[in-house]
Amino acid sequence: MRHEMKDKPDAFKALMANAKFDLGRSDLPHQSLGRALTPEEEALADGLMQVYAEGASGPAAIAAGLAKRGVVSPQSGKADWTAESVARELAALNADLDRAYAENGSGGGHGGDTGGTST
Prior knowledge:
Oligomer: single chain
């Protein structure tokens, strides 16, 4: 992993902080907190951040960047990304994270919690 990324501002976090104002969704910056991300989802997020940091934009360029890095799809378990599979993967992941947030609020993603409730 490249170390120079640590010195750069986190554009994604800034985007999410502004999204609650721009999109009218105050929950958007915290959607993934409804449950912990899987290792595959974390790897996808890291891969996306690397691809975006290199200036890729658009589904085809993002797919090429993920495939080049060997990032495995959490759904298929394969690294054969296409523009269509990027769109499907992100839509499915976002829907699942939205469900987890709706069910668990923002507390389910802390400390490896998988979103279950304790009694």
